[in-house]
Design goal:
- By secondary structure, the chain is mostly helical.
- Helix content is about 40%, strand content about 10%.
- The protein contains four helices and four strands; from the N terminus they run ββαβαααβ.
- β1 and β2 (about 5-10) form a beta hairpin.
Length: about 130
Amino acid sequence: MLLVGGCATGRSRQTADEVFALQRQVHALENALQKLLEEHGKHIVRSGETLRTIAQRHNLQVSDLYRMNPDLRSTIEGNQFYPGLVIVVREQKPNKIASHEPPPPVSRPDAPVHRTQDSLPGPASGGGR
């Protein structure tokens, strides 16, 4: 069996190519997930990142990250800061849907108009008799 670059030729080479293709797909999925989370003000910690590098990437101070992530200090003190950890990197705006205010009425041009006796056309004084 001939070894090329530490891999056996033939089936092993095909397997190595398959593994490499899968690694590229995983990396692409990780990037897509990161982008989606960032749209919602979140960040996935990657290997080698620090709070300082994450803060700099998002134009923040490390103290901003601590403020937006109240459990972050205990996470770091407990050595639980690891790749894959999701942290908040942008203040969340209140969601209007989540509020308890009813939505404004929607007027439709094809909706029937219901009038009360007071809104019917006629003499302004109600008299005339």
